[in-house]
Structures are given as C-alpha cells and as structure tokens.
Amino acid sequence: MKYLDLAMNAATSLGAEYADIRIQKTTDEVIYLQNLSLKHVNTGIINGYGIRVFKDGAWGFAHNNVFSDEAVLATVERAVKIAELSATVNRKKKLRLAPERSYIATYKTPVQIDPFDVPLSEKVDLMMEVNRTMMAFEGIRRASFYLIMHKDEKLFASTLGTRLDITYQFIDPMITATAVTDTDSQSRTFDEGGRAVGWEWVLSLDLIEKAKQIAEEALIKVKADNLGPEQRRSLILDPNHLGLTMHESVGHPTELDRVLGWEADYAGISFATPEKLKNYQYGSDIVNFVGDNTLAEGLATLGFDDDGVPGQKWHIIKDGILNEYGSTRDTAMEIGLNYSRRL
Q1: How far apart are the C-alpha atoms of 63 and 7, rounded to whole Å?
Q2: What is the pTM for the complete model shown?
Q3: What pLDDT is attached to residue 237?
Q4: What pLDDT digit, counting tens, does each position of 205-214 carry?
C-alpha cells in the first residue's frame, strides 16, 4: 500500500532516527447464550493506522483512521512533534534501540475454516445444542456459552526497510454449567483460553461431550462434602488455574518494562530486578519456563512483534534460575542487551 512508503519517507525527511507504521483492520465477533436464550451478538470492525517515530532518544506516537495522503502526512508530523516534545522531558536519559535487520515477509495464522465465514445460524445452532445438553441434567439451573472470534489484518513498515503483511486470528469458546441446591450453587467451566486456529478446532472439541462432563462436574462440586478441619493438603491445580498462576508469578514479573519501573499497572512492579538476572533462585532446579512466540496455535504466535522482530523462543527461567526477560528494542538496551524478546 502506498501509505507505507509515504509515511516512512516523510518521517525520515523530518529527522526521525527510526519510524514504523501499522495499517490495521481488526474484526471481532462475540456471541453469548444463556440457557436457551440468545443474549448477545456483536460484530465490530475497526480500521486505522498508527505511526511511531523515534527521534532524539524519545518516542512519539499518533494515529488516524482517515486514509488520504494529507491525513497520513499530518499524522507523521504529529508523531514527530510528540517525539520532539518527549525528548525535552528527560534530556539526560535518552532511549536507545537494540539493533535489528529488515524483513520482507508474510505471516498468516494457519486456518482451515475461517470462523468469520461460518454462518451465524450454524454457530448458534451448535451453541444451543451445547446449552441444551447441560440443561438436561437435573440440578443444572444455568448454562452459558460465550464465543469470541478475533482477527487482525495488518500491514507493517519501518524505516529499516521492513515490510510485513500479517493476518492473525484466534477463537475462544467458553461453556459454563451452574448447579443449584437448596443451600448452595457451584459452577464448572470449560475454557482452554483460546487458540490461534480456525473453526475446525471448535468442531474437533466435541463440545456436546464436554457439556456433559461440565454439567456432571458442577453437580459433583455442589454436592461435595466440606473439607472439615484445617490441615495441610496436596494441591492439584486445574490447567487454566496453573496457567494464570504462571502468568502472574512469572510472566508479569519478567516483563522488562515492568522490571525497569516503566510500567506498574494492574500487576504492580516487579521483584525480579536486573541484579538478580542469572543468579536468582526462582524455583527448584527442575523448574523451567520458556517464552515461545513460535508455538503452533499459540496466542502470542504472530510471526513478528510490533517492533518488526521475528517470533523467538527462549528460557525465562532455566533450571530454576532467572535467565532472561521479555523485552522490546528500547528496554533491551537498558540492561546491555543487543536484541529484544517480546513476551
């Protein structure tokens, strides 16, 4: 698309040390059923582009959804101006970017059946049958099915000469059964967290059988005896819960921007500070955590990250020791790395 070269040439002419542009169309479809009632259907499409400019050791960002030469050039100028203003805030601490080469590539999530091509009626029919299956169990008073489908179609260009055409998508079906007695209510949910695949995955899950299992487990749970006196017990984590535990205890604390104190939102700051790298005992020597942006069907498998860096695989924790962070081109240089690895 002509706007890629137009934006990058304009950024260079305005003195940018580096710049990139993402022209993106995002499509989301959400369907929600409760019991046998279709509660919500929504399909949203967002089009636009974002331009980043790195100048005098600082970032500037601007975005727009108007596609014309004039709008693109004005957006570049706004990003450059923001970078120039940002550079005045901390003149003694300029950012640096880890070196990276250019790439010309195409990446598409491997999909056999695009869920956006599947008729709404076919999706709803399956969802209704799943909920009907759960509701057939005596004691199940509520059944819900929440289906999310997401697709990003992105063109990326940078002043390094990188030109990328990326189509990424994922799908996430979630079903829940709630059992009710005179004194209690308990729920069980089937949710694998989504995968970067197509509708073929949903068909392979055999959700009718999963619905039976979830309903039965909800009934077992609501009828279960109390644990009794407090005592030390073995804990078995459901895979979804284990995933969340790993996400919070290893994922967030090893994000380098959080480690550096640049980010401290929902998950707070990090205890895994740089002096602990390569020597901090994160767990026993059998504990290994691997960041993998090349994993088949992985939600983080995008081909290339938003810095234009290819997906990679690396040890975050190796033999129990803090081994490496998830980083970007600007954070990596803060601890002396000449490459980035984005989580």
Answers
A1: 12
A2: 0.92
A3: 84
A4: 999 999 999 9
Please work out, in degrees rounded to the nearest 5, the angle formed at the alpha carbon of residue 69 by the alpha carbons of 76 and 83. 5
Question: Of 279, 257, 278, which is closest to residue 269 (Cα–Cα)?
Answer: 257
Residue 263 has a pLDDT of: 86
Which contacts of 340-343 are long-range, i.e. CB under 8 A and separated by 24 or more positions? 340/98, 340/100, 340/307, 340/309, 341/291, 341/312, 341/314, 342/293, 342/305, 342/306, 342/307, 342/309, 343/251, 343/254, 343/255, 343/291, 343/300
Enumerate the domain spans of the chain. Answer: 2-221, 239-335
Q: Which CATH superfamily is domain 2-221 in?
A: PmbA/TldD superfamily (3.30.2290.10)
- Examine the pLDDT at 343 and tell me if it is beyond 70: no
Closest CA to 120 of 15, 46, 31: 31
